[in-house]
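Figure 6 in text form: structure in, sequence out.
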């Protein structure tokens, strides 16, 4: 069955019906559903393994974005996120993309980067010569001593390069870049160990002093690309989406918000799958200003009746190791995604980020963001002003009417309407006192 058909009306279902659909689809097992109904992970001893001074868990809502078909494969997308309208917008936009086009992805490059810094290099040229004489041997040595398990899987250190960077007090700085293929791991621990191992032979043979070793999150040696192509888009809308894109490509103030919107689609998947979202955020933002100006990481063009969007940025994730393997909810989410590799997960994240961006641009250039966002935010407002169970529904209804009439609503609107509802209730003769 086509994914759109499977998910038709999904958002209007009760929670148990949603579980039934996901079970029928094979996205969740009976045991997964029982685990989720019981509230997910509670194991305090496990928390002690993850972090220091643990005192519990912080539970974010977990939802699924629907209608995603990426590279021809149907995916149910788990998203752990606190913000209203992200999942709705992703799901609605994914359906639109399916109806008019497709999402295709690829990975450009395979290696992550580790840095070895010599802050005050005495002789940069001698270091260059040393590297070219010893590179093959250093790589063989470190691959055998530190990265043997990765080499077995087809990864390991693939190159070592040397860069000259402006240092302090007129000193040049030398920075080795160790290019490492981490296979399906995110690779942070391994690349740091590789760099610290290489520090030994570098210092011993050069007489230089290594200052520090650490991975770089600006992984421009491995980029994830997602592309959307759509036909039959209303020309006026296509043009407006292109204009919105050019705004974000040219103006850093808009680029920051555009990229936040893209990350609305990416971060929730990273959190749900136990990945390091700070690392991905840092990499994406650094890549967004690679030419000296902060720019959009997505680009949309409309021509010849075709709307084309592209996301290209570093998106380093793992599907094995660390929290991805140990946190039961992260495992459940990875199983739900049915993802085969770290690159596969990165490509899904890029696709959802790009779809999310399209959804926001469509809303921004047509009805505006408030209408859809506030429609879904109404429940938060009713909770925020303290409406009880009996008051919630009539309050929501009044807020929906006000939103439709005024195009905006606020916390104080909700408060005033609630007070009015309570006033009516208090003066109505047949009402009994709530106390
Ligand atoms: P709508 O047309 O009123 O929704 O849109 P609908 O009730 O007709 O339902 C249509 C479909 O939308 C549903 O199909 C769902 O797929 C989805 P169905 O399941 O019924 O077959 N949908 C939902 N899914 C789950 N739960 C729901 C739900 N409601 C609809 N409750 C919608 C409403 C919010 C989707 C639309 O107005 C929209 O896409 N707005 C954009 C909202 C958005 O982009 N939010 C992101 C946060 S804003 C932000 O932080 C980023 C920003 O600054 C970035 C930037 O500037 O670039 C904007």
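Output sequence:
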């Amino acid at each position: 069955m086509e994914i759109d058909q499977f998910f038709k009306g999904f958002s209007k279902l009760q929670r148990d019906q949603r579980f039934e659909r996901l079970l029928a689809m094979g996205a969740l097992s009976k045991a997964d559903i029982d685990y989720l109904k019981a509230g997910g992970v509670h194991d305090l001893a496990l928390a002690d393994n993850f972090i220091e001074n643990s005192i519990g868990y912080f539970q974010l809502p977990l939802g699924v974005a629907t209608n995603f078909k990426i590279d021809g494969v149907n995916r149910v997308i788990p998203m752990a996120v606190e913000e209203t309208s992200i999942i709705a917008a992703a799901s609605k936009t994914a359906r639109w993309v399916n109806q008019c086009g497709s999402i295709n992805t690829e990975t450009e490059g395979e290696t992550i980067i580790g840095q070895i810094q010599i802050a005050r290099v005495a002789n940069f040229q001698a270091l260059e010569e040393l590297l070219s004489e010893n590179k093959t041997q250093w790589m063989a040595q470190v691959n055998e001593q530190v990265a043997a398990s990765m080499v077995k899987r087809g990864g390991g250190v693939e190159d070592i390069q040397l860069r000259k960077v402006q240092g302090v007090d007129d000193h040049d700085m030398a920075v080795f870049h160790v290019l490492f293929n981490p296979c399906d791991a995110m690779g942070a621990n391994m690349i740091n160990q590789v760099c610290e191992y290489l520090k030994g032979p570098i210092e011993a043979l050069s007489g230089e002093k290594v200052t520090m070793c650490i991975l770089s999150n600006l992984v421009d040696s491995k980029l994830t690309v997602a592309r959307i192509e759509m036909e039959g888009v209303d020309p006026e809308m296509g043009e407006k989406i292109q204009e919105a894109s050019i705004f974000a490509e040219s103006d850093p103030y808009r680029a920051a918000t555009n990229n936040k919107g893209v990350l609305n689609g990416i971060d929730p998947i990273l959190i749900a799958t136990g990945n390091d979202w700070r690392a991905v955020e840092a990499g994406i933002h650094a890549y967004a200003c690679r030419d000296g100006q902060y720019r959009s990481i997505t680009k949309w063009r409309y021509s010849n009746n075709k709307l084309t969007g592209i996301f290209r940025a570093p998106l380093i994730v793992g599907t094995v190791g660390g929290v991805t393997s140990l946190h039961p909810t992260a495992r459940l989410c990875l199983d739900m995604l049915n993802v085969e590799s770290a690159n596969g997960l990165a490509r899904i994240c890029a696709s959802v980020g790009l779809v999310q961006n399209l959804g926001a641009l469509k809303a921004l250039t047509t009805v505006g963001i408030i209408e859809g966002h506030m429609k879904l935010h109404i429940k938060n407002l009713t909770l925020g002003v303290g409406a009880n169970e009996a008051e919630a529904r009539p309050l929501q209804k009044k807020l929906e009417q006000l939103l439709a009439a005024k195009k905006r609503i606020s916390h104080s609107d909700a408060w005033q309407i609630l007070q009015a509802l309570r006033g009516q209730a208090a003066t109505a003769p047949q009402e009994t006192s709530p106390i």
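Caption detail: Residues 8-12, 66, 85-89, 91-92, 95, 257-258, 260-261, 264, 359-360, 363-364, 369, 372-373, 376 surround 3-hydroxy-3-methylglutaryl-coenzyme A (CB under 6 Å).
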